[in-house]
């Protein structure tokens, strides 16, 4: 069940609200996720509201260049990414580490073998 969360980057330049189901969180071993140590949860883009920091974000795309990995130019934290589902539905991939009051180590994320995809 989705709940409401606040999140952002380390320096506070980027802030957002999102409705997420943390029971559906994942870890991934792809060349980006594993070194970052992210735990991800996904939300429809209309459940994500960026309140501040759009002008302070920079983008990195790799592999198929379909996911916009966005991170703060000031502190370097990647708190979310934009992408889409196979059916075209726009989503936000949230770095659970960037959510206020959440300890991702208390979750039981599903592991995804992103290296093999």
UniProtKB/TrEMBL annotation:
In the record, what terms sit under GO molecular function? carbon-sulfur lyase activity; metal ion binding
Q: Which family does it belong to?
A: Belongs to the Gfa family.
Q: Which Gene3D superfamilies match?
A: 2.170.150.70
- Organism, as annotated: Primorskyibacter flagellatus
Q: Which superkingdom heads the taxonomic lineage of this protein's source?
A: Bacteria
Question: This protein is called what?
Answer: Uncharacterized conserved protein
Q: Which residues form the signal peptide?
A: none
Has UniProt tagged this entry with the keyword Phosphoprotein? Answer: no
What does the UniProt keyword field contain? Metal-binding, Zinc
Q: What InterPro entries does the entry give?
A: CENP-V-like, CENP-V/GFA, Mss4-like_sf
Name all CENP-V/GFA domain ranges. 5-117
